[in-house]
Amino acid sequence: MRRMLLAQKAYAEGALGLNLYCARLLDWQQTARDEAEAKRVELLLELLTPIAKSWPSQWCQEGNSLAIQIHGGYGYTRDFQVEQLWRDQRLNPIHEGTHGIQGLDLLGRKVRMANGAALKALRGEVDKALSKATALGLGPMAASLAAGFDRINETLEILFGQDDLDLTLANASAFLEAFGHAVIAWMWLEQASSATSSLKNADTDTERAFYSGKIAAARWFYTWELPKTGPMLDSLASLDRTSLDMQEDWF
Q1: Where are the alpha helices (DSSP H) in the chain?
Q2: pTM for the full model?
Q3: In the chain, what are the domain boundaries?
């Protein structure tokens, strides 16, 4: 039960963190010191938009599924609201563009936008979070995140290193999921850093519980979710053609 509740917390609060960050980027564009900074923020927001649309709709759907599960046999009855929430949430992965469209947008356009400037802007922000987290004693999580983004860059070199765009984009949805997990891990590292710093000065049990919960959720995400990107990136790097080679009459 605790595992399922913790997973729901990690999905929902990680997704909320990303969308709040994207909202902040909209404000940042308007208050940028100069045109160069405004352009960098714009590129960062463009890169994160497919993730902000798709990751919450996929993984908060899973959170709603777990909410049904914790009710046992009553979960999928109308005695509790969770079944309605699951059905309502199911719209989101096909609304504002399906996962497939968002994956093609991310891999086909966004990661190489402005000669890679968007991806470079993202890594710059991630590196700031890595330094802050390491100074606060969160070095192992920071190292895992750095390795994850390094691996994403290596995979991109392989995907775009051969002259076959169809093959590059054949498994774009898998790239969207792997990249999204890395981005949410970044959001959790930011939250864990803030919680670690704030916990030292917490005055009440309620505050201490809130910050401790954030740290626990971040630890859970880094232990159980971020490692999922490894096998996904392995499969992407293999340049698998199974979906491309599938013939219509084989279905």
Answers
A1: 2-31, 35-69, 82-89, 99-108, 117-135, 139-159, 165-169, 172-199, 205-220, 229-237, 242-245
A2: 0.95
A3: 2-240
